Amino acid sequence: MSVLVFTENWDGQFKKLSFELVSYASKIAEMLNTTTTAVSIGNVGDSELNKLGKYGADKIISVSDNKLVNLDNQAYTAVIAELAEKEGAKTIIFSNNNVGKALAPRLSAKLKAGLVSGAIKVPGTIDPFTLTKKVFSGKAFASVIIKSESKIITLAQNSFKLIEKNNTPSIEQYAPQVSDDLIKTSIKNVEKQTGKVILTDADIVVSGGRGMKSPDNWGPIEELAEILGAATACSRPVSDEGWRPHNEHTGQTGKIIAPNLYFAFGISGAIQHLAGISSSKFIVAVNTDKEAPIFEAADYGIIGDALKVLPELISAVKEVKSS
Amino acid sequence: MKILICLSNVPDTTTKVKFVDNNTQLDKTGIQWIINPWDELALTRALELKEDADASVESITVITVGGKDSETTIRKALAIGADDALRVDADPGDAYVVASQIAEAIKDKGYDIILCGIESSDYNSSLVGGMLSELLNIPSISAVSGLHISNNEVTLDRDIDGGKEVVSAPTPFVAVVQKGIAAEPRIASMRGIMMAKKKPIDVIAPQSVEVLTEFAGYELPQSKAACKIIDPENVKELVDLLRNEAKVI
Asked: Which part of chain A is CATH 3.40.50.1220?
């Protein structure tokens, strides 16, 4: 009956979101009066696996199978379904990131388990099993009841605080039945950025809009991002113009992010842009137009030219960072 | 290749949402309905591929689950260039209902590539594509920002954290597509609008589907505290606030 939580690692190291997910799952397990079982697929060492105990995992099932090196949605879903059955798990948790969005709906259809995606907190009530999620791109919240016996939740990123429980988990190495014909997709090529902070995983994001006036003015945005250990982002017109790559576009049709701190330089804050960033804990806006809608979403604002404010901000940040 | 695109009918993205019936229903008064933006990009990519002789795309079909009123959106897709359309005459309910209705409606129709947008801009659930692929027991590729067909071989660009992978998949499959799949959605031409009137919409009777989830109510977010305005001559104050008040740097 345990709560099953699907963790993700990056070259054998757990992503921060995995600890959030385990904390979240163990909180739900507490409400359901049961235990938390974390699933890890990939080559992850025992000391790394044990870190999941710190956030409340009672048991860890580690699957290390060379056939599962690449994400094949159909094969991964089959493995997780097998584990859910083996553990008798009726509540299964994923992140609402690319991987969770790829796997959770498949598992939902396979198990006939009602699924709420992008939940922002633990269930308000257990009976009925009610979750809250954002809808209409952040313009409203909905309460959704899961009516089926098996339940799946994907948790919105950066929406649940880590809880330290310091459990000593048991670790089970498990070899699932993965037949070759189950894996139908293959990877032909991989392009990875190196050394850059990943936008959807970043605590701080520094973003620029058309108010930056030219792609040649991005130097200070990158510099500020580097000093803060932040990722860089941009608004839609900027990526449409080709000033910045499409993978930096944040907004309704681009990336939806929820960092602790979001800087908007020269971004007016169209409703579609706000849809992508409104879950940020703090928003700083710098814009020459005091009527710009970004100031309604922002916590801190400077009415001024981003190109003039940026160098001063960089030196002020450098000063406190070095003190 | 036969391509199918799943369309969701959603309120225009600039809509100010309101709720009625004790906050249990969306107030549909005055809402402009559009093709879900990601579905529209999927359609655009399908049209580009059909124009490319190498890709040998035979037909483009669109499908939606909804009442008669959703036909306005279907006609728009036909006007942009889809060849024909299917409408399952059912209340879309939740994602599982939609996926089940589509799976049942298309299971014997031999589509090679099924495209779904990464999410709908109303319920933001990102579920139908994945559910549909499992119900049809075929591969799915999610977070797809590129779709290429050459010599009957299909490759897809899949976004991963900090990069992308090129994935090869045998047909049939479901691709869940996002930004990047096509540059700009197309606008229907006058000729397209005229031709769309003659294109067939096949209305399919719904199946009975188990209800797994239920939307119980809605709430609008509380208005945010006013923005603290800082003098541009005093940027240090901003850093001080971020460090000592917000505690984020």
From this structure: 199-322
